[in-house]
Design goal:
37% of the residues lie in helices and 18% in strands. It has 226 residues and is α/β, with parallel strands linked by helices. The protein is globular, with a radius of gyration of 16 Å. The chain starts with a strand and ends with a helix.
């Protein structure tokens, strides 16, 4: 059965995602910056009101690149701990070297702070210079998923690479297509990539600016892929 993960940038989006039928979200903040660590009160509220909702928490302390200093890695570790304490079901992280490879040393330091929770390597993957080597490095680190647009602007444009990565992975890790997913193309992306999970913000313009998840779009994507 295909599954939709809804990227939610705040509490209003969480509520809309659940209203639309989502059973799993990625919780973050500041979608305009491609997602940062969420406001902790949003996680607390979501966990209290929706105990059955699967909440994957993005841990990204700043916008910009994914090359982190030792001090920034300590900040990520502290945020991973905090997310676990507040009831995250999974964590979403990513770190690269200046050369564009997976920072395997940093990732090895971070993974124990997941405390046994599943880990998704986020779209830092799309900036890797060798996606197939990055795939192997991420698998070796123990991650469970890779969120990717196939190193293209949208997951539909990157579908061929995602399929190739899915085939290379051979069940060792899940590929999670994301980027430009809509009710109109979600099913096509799944068919072309061979994946069974998909990631979308399903968002529109909010009343006060910014992007907010639309319950109607969530429901439409779910209808398209099931």
């Amino acid at each position: 059965m295909n599954l939709l993960e809804v990227c939610c940038g705040g509490w209003d989006s969480v509520r809309a995602a659940v209203e639309g039928g989502a059973v799993r979200i990625e919780l973050c903040s500041r979608l305009e910056a491609d997602g940062l660590t969420p406001v902790w009160e949003d996680l607390q509220t979501a966990r209290r009101l929706y105990p059955e909702l699967r909440i994957h928490v993005l841990v990204r302390p700043r916008e910009g690149d994914f090359v982190y200093s030792p001090q920034e890695l300590l900040e990520i570790m502290a945020q991973m701990d905090r997310a676990r304490e507040l009831g995250a079901d999974a964590l979403v992280i990513g770190c690269l070297t200046p050369e564009g490879d997976v920072d395997t040393d940093a990732l090895a330091r971070l993974m124990p702070y997941a405390g046994g929770l599943p880990v998704t390597f986020h779209r830092a993957f799309d900036r890797c210079r060798n996606p197939f080597q990055a795939l192997e490095d991420i698998i070796a680190a123990g991650c469970r998923r890779i969120l990717t647009s196939g190193q293209a602007t949208t997951a539909l444009e990157g579908a061929d690479l995602i399929r190739a990565l899915q085939e290379r992975a051979a069940g060792r890790i899940l590929l999670l297509p994301g980027g430009g997913v809509t009710p109109e193309n979600a099913a096509l992306i799944l068919r072309r990539t061979g994946c069974t999970e998909i990631h979308a913000s399903a968002s529109g313009q909010g009343l006060y600016g910014g992007r907010v998840t639309s319950a109607q779009k969530v429901a439409a994507i779910l209808k398209a892929i099931t």
